[in-house]
From TrEMBL:
Family named by the database record: Belongs to the LysR transcriptional regulatory family.
Protein's UniProt name: LysR family transcriptional regulator
Polar residues: compositionally biased ranges: 198-209
Matches recorded under SUPFAM superfamilies: Periplasmic binding protein-like II
Residues annotated as transmembrane: none
Native species: Streptosporangium nondiastaticum
CDD domains assigned: PBP2_LTTR_aromatics_like
Keywords from the UniProt entry: DNA-binding, Transcription, Transcription regulation
Length: 268
């Protein structure tokens, strides 16, 4: 390799709450010679990172901004929305809540919110927290409650906080996305991994289908004499009829088997 050549690598962006470990492990098993580098990005900056060429593909949250029409996206899963509360909060006594149950609560709305509320439940805070992490700190201080995807509640877990499902809240969908005009071979490889294709898939590059298939066995030639009439007297079971007649006490020619022949007549 010359000094001007660059070793190939795959850069994968991911937003907070997404755990790409499973797919990274499969990549490393199938393509050990191509390192995969993870790039952590805020949800609001994921598209800019991909368009700027700082990552080849990324796990993002849907919907993408309306003006981003130059991206391809494969939706992967939808997260449960939860409300983060202090452990001694009254809501902690139930298994799940609705937005109506939060009508009297101050519901924090951070600037990096990913739920896209049309109408935020509860009462608004005087000031919006800058980040979800800041909002979690305010919940711990008893200033309000916070609605987020469950993965973010786990990411910012604290011993003094808990969460409950918020059944009628908007939900966040996670997708694999990349610029449409940058669908490289390595992007195709990663798409195959995310979609669960096997290493022998016809659409994968790691092992072309023609190589993965075992060679077809040559057609067997007919056995010698197969399809031809067998020689007379050589067919399986030939003579069986005669044997059966003999067993019944009859000779093969129709006479009684074992009967004495008549005396010859005298000539006059």
């Amino acid at each position: 390799m010359t000094g001007s050549e660059v070793s190939p690598s795959f850069r994968l962006a991911y937003v907070p709450g997404v755990t790409p470990a499973k797919w990274v492990r499969i990549w490393n098993e199938r393509l050990p010679d191509i390192p995969l580098h993870l790039v952590a990005v805020p949800a609001a900056e994921a598209c800019d990172v991909l368009l700027g060429g700082d990552a080849d593909a990324g796990f993002v949250r849907l919907p993408l901004p309306a003006e981003r029409t130059d991206f391809s996206a494969i939706p992967l899963y939808t997260e449960t929305t939860v409300v983060v509360i202090p452990k001694d909060h009254v809501v902690a006594a139930v298994e799940e809540v609705t937005t109506e149950d939060l009508a009297d609560e101050i519901v924090l709305h951070p600037l990096d919110d990913v739920l896209g509320w049309e109408r935020l439940p509860g009462r608004p805070a005087i000031e919006r927290p800058a980040t979800t992490a800041d909002a979690v700190e305010l919940v711990a201080a008893g200033i309000g409650v916070l609605a987020v995807p469950q993965s973010l509640a786990r990411l910012h877990h604290r011993k003094d906080l808990t969460y409950r499902p918020l059944t009628d809240a908007p939900q966040s969908r996670v997708a694999l996305s990349w610029p449409e005009d940058a669908t490289t071979d390595m992007v195709e490889d990663f798409i195959g991994i995310v979609r669960g294709r096997t290493v022998n898939s016809s659409r994968g590059r790691t092992q072309p289908q023609a190589e993965a298939r075992s060679p077809k066995a040559p057609a067997k030639s007919p056995a010698k004499g197969q399809g031809k009439a067998q020689p007379k007297g050589k067919r399986p079971g030939a003579g069986g009829g005669a044997q059966r007649k003999a067993a019944a006490g009859k000779s093969p020619r129709g006479g009684a088997g074992g009967a004495k022949r008549g005396k010859p007549r005298r000539r006059s």
